Amino acid sequence: MDYFAAISAFVRSVDLGSFSKAAAEAGVKVSTISRHISGLEQDLGAALLNRSTRRLHLTEAGQLFYNRATPIMAEVEDARSMMRSWNGRPQGLLRINIPTAFGRRHVMPHMKDFLAAHPDIRLEATLTDATVNLIESGADVGVRIGALVDSALIAKRMAPQRRLLVASPSYVEGRSPLKAADDLAHHECLVFALQPAKSWYYRPNHSPAAQPAEVAVDGRLRVNDSETLRDGAVGGLGIAYCPHG
Questions:
Q1: What mean pLDDT comes out for the span 115-130?
Q2: How many CA atoms lie within 13 A of 64 on its CB side?
Q3: Is the pTM of this model over 0.85?
Q4: 163-243 adopts what CATH topology?
Q5: Are the C-beta atoms of 37 and 9 separated by less than 8 Å?
Q6: Which of 36, 52, 128, 236 is deepest in the core (most CB within 10 A)?
Q7: What is the pLDDT of residue 86?
Q8: Strand 239-243 relative to strand 163-166: parallel, antiparallel, unpaired?
Q9: Which one, of 239, 103, 96, 85, lies nearest residue 171 by Cα?
Q10: Better pLDDT: 147 or 92
Q11: What DSSP character marks residue 211?
Q12: Are 10 and 48 spatial neighbours (Cβ–Cβ below 8 Å)?
């Protein structure tokens, strides 16, 4: 038995004076209201109402239960009204989890305008390249780059991402040419330490319809920060696989 629905059916039937009016208000059949109240009486072990063809009459037990149930239902309705009003405008604490470089470049510059537009919101931003469990961390929103693992969370694609192989002239000079993906085996690759495998992925012939291909990479330097990888490439330490923009 849906206890809340049963109490609601009982209180509204008494308030309105009939099962049919309570059913019409709730948008259900009269038999549904009758079944709710019969179940409530069976659970309580007492008759709550004497039914007549013209009106409902509370028994003594019914009066006692109605007196206690009515303020409870009123409190519930007040809580519902409060939440409807609360949800009418954005407010409260918003926790977001975003990759470090992406957050600095593409999210944080907009925070001033966002907070100005929503004065009732408090923002807590966590910038990290580690893959954080959003539920365990208490985050409301997370930004992820790349393929998502299977999850019950709601995901929405924001934009495509293009990655480029980058290296400084000082590194490229005098080294074997890089003409195909397999040539990376002969180069120092700056590996992102937080990725699950030492592999980079690409689409052959730059075709969006092509299935991603995998190439194994390795190098003497692994870093857990994407901006540091970029700086390493600029400094001539090797080849980095960095997002465009």
A1: 91
A2: 6
A3: no
A4: D-Maltodextrin-Binding Protein; domain 2 (3.40.190)
A5: yes
A6: 36
A7: 75
A8: antiparallel
A9: 239
A10: 92
A11: P
A12: yes
As annotated, the residues of the chain forming the CATH 3.40.190.10 domain(s) are: 92-142, 163-243
The CATH class that applies to domain 92-142 reads alpha beta
pLDDT digits (tens, 9 = 90+) for 94-105: 999 999 888 988
Which position has the token pair 């309105």? 16
Query: Within the chain, which residue ranges are assigned CATH 1.10.10.10?
Result: 3-86
Fold for domain 3-86? Arc Repressor Mutant, subunit A (1.10.10)
Can you give the pLDDT at residue 209?
72
| Contacts (Cβ under 8 Å, ≥6 apart) of 218 | 185, 189, 191, 198
Would you say the C-alpha torsion 190, 193, 197, 203 has a positive or negative sign?
negative
205, 181 Cβ separation under 8 angstroms: no
Tell me which amino acid residue 243 is: P
Rg of the chain over CA atoms, in angstroms? 32
- % of the chain with per-residue pLDDT over 90: 45
